Amino acid sequence: MSTDTTPRPKSSAPEVLTGSGAILRSLEHLGITDVFGLPGGAIMPFYDELMASTAIRHILVRHEQGAGHAAEGYASSTGKIGVAIATSGPGATNLVTAIADAYMDSVPLLAITGQVFSTSMGTDAFQEIDIVGITMPITKHSFLVTKPEDVPAALAAAYQIATTGRPGPVLVDITKDAQQNSAPFIWPPKLDLPGYRPVIKAHGKQVIAAAQLLVEAERPVFYVGGGVIRAGASEELLELAERVGAPIVTTLMARGAFPDSNPLHLGMPGMHGAVPAVLSLQESDLIISLGARFDDRVTGKPSEFAPLAKIVHVDIDPAEIGKIRAADVPIVGDAKDVIVDLSAAFADAAKAHKPDYSAWWTRLNTLKAQYPLGYTMPDDGLLSPQQIIQRIGELTGPEAVYAAGVGQHQMWAAQFIKYERPNSWLNSGGAGTMGYGVPAAMGAKVANPDRVVWAIDGDGCFQMTNQELATCTINNIPIKVAIINNSSLGMVRQWQTLFYDGRHSFTDLNTGHGTAMVPDFVKLAEAYGCLGIRVTKPEEVDAAIKLALETNDRPVVIDFIVSRDAMVWPMVPQGVGNSQVQYARDHAPEWEEE
After folding, report:
1. Of all helices (H) and strands (E), which one includes residue 444?
2. Is residue 253 annotated as a catalytic residue, yes or no?
């Protein structure tokens, strides 16, 4: 947290500011340089103040959900806090999806909302909504500010809570009279937050116990989650992995935490993970979980997950440890600090007993050779979505940022793009929010103007938030959008094919197949001031991607018309154990939901 160090005479009285002025001054103290928002009646006093600011860039979005996801993309691509601003009532409730998304994926987000006059609260006043109450289950904390003198401390506390411990969203709701009235601006010299004491440094004996299990194990696996990225611990993880020589798997939220090119990396585990990654966990005798939460999409049926494995669970949030799977060695602490300590403890333990993982690697290398990640070309004459996404990654490279919506295209982007660095892969993991991709890419581009930023989206997701292309065009935010257009809600359609006897109930979107094309995405892109491209033939794919990469004076939208019958493989059907992972098959596996 930055502090204003401007020298002032000791006897000088605090500056008197309106509550709105105090919001702006507080954001400046906190080092905020970019915010995303949409004005309205209850937040108008602050917007009047913000208009004159030279220190903070405000991006006017077309929908408050776009502000929230843009703030998430900004945060997830940098590790900094993202800021979203909205008015009361529907403005605030439009932020709820993004707030919930940030909560599930541990994204540091500051949501500032206006509220009706404090004297009107509780009267069902125009655009009055109890946003503090609504967001209480999906924020780390929510503040209601009714007095101008309380603004600095509330925002300072919100920043600290959002960015420390397990990161997450914090909401600050400020009444209109608190924004209009004046009070001395007093920046808190020290924050005292009773009950908020995140543990950073782990207990040394627990780390030593984990190291001992690691040297005694024959089939260990490092199960790496998004917490490693949030902790900025990728370099430390690489050092630990190469010292130990054990395999690494990176979850959907951890793609890029460990280089895909490193031979220790087995890929992504989970429902649509690589077979070697899935079975390595399943057959292991020790799982070192680093910043992961044993999500159902990774474990499958929890009672059948890794039945022979001891568990070392490292997480900064004590509530996650033992929630799904009991930990033999629970370690509460910051992932970066724990990894450094574990690396040193392993080095000491290995002096007395050097582990031998050669037999384990023989098995894993056999799995890698037997089950390579791949795809079959469609036989309907349409494009392969996997091939398109793979070429985007190959032609763009690992220094780019890739944001995805949710569905089949999300899984293919996680599988077929090679990630070599943290913060290069942005997606909605826990909440699975359709519409995340375009605004998240927009936020990432604001934060990383010198990087190429792709939004890899589906035709369903794209139609939920594509209005932010107007924001991108007007504000010179030249993102690239690849629409993987299978003219349907693809993941739902896949499940209907596999588990509902091919009854495709209400999943056809009519966006690219047959005579219907509603909307025409190329015309829509052009209406938003973007370069619009449609690709229907394999020989056009590379040229379209290269043109997008060469075009930096406006956003680019490429409408790739792909096969609607392409499926995401491998797959662990919901409700079964990971041992039943399906590499690919023509008929539905046995399945039950629990």
Report:
1. helix 437-447
2. no
Residues carrying CATH 3.40.50.970, the chain:
16-184, 385-568
Secondary-structure class of domain 16-184 per CATH? alpha beta
Count how many residues are written for the chain: 594
- What CATH topology corresponds to 385-568? Rossmann fold (3.40.50)
Q: What is the pLDDT of residue 490?
A: 83
**List 1, 15, 126, 546, catalytic entry:** 126
Which amino acid, one-letter code, is at 278?
V
Q: Is 126 a catalytic residue?
A: yes
Sheet holding 453-458, edge to edge: 425-426, 401-404, 453-458, 480-485, 556-561, 531-535
Who wins on pLDDT, 513 or 172?
172
Q: Which of 80, 117, 121, 127 is catalytic?
A: 127
CA-based nearest residue to 240, from 347, 103, 105, 364: 347
10 Å CB burial of residue 190 (0-12, 13-18, 19+) is exposed
Of 64, 283, 320, 468, which residue is the catalytic one? 64
258 is catalytic: no
Mean pLDDT, range 450-465, rounded to an integer = 97
Residue 308 three-state SS: coil
Extract the tokens encoding 289: 């979980």
Name the active-site residue from 491, 517, 567, 571. Answer: 491
Active site residue 64: yes
pLDDT band at 552 (very low <50, low <70, confident <90, very high): very high
Say whether pLDDT at 327 is over 50. yes
CATH code given to domain 204-370: 3.40.50.1220
The one-letter code for the residue type at 409 is H
HEC profile of 372-436: CCCCCCCCCCCECHHHHHHHHHHHHCCCCEEEECCCHHHHHHHHHCCCCCCCCEECCCCCCCCCC
Are the C-beta atoms of residues 561 and 403 closer than 8 Å to each other? no
Residues 591, 572 contacting (CB under 8 angstroms): no
Helix, strand or coil for residue 589?
Answer: coil
The first and second tokens of residue 119, run together, are 């004297």
Q: Report how far residue 153's alpha carbon sits from residue 156's, in angstroms, rounded to the nearest whole number.
A: 5
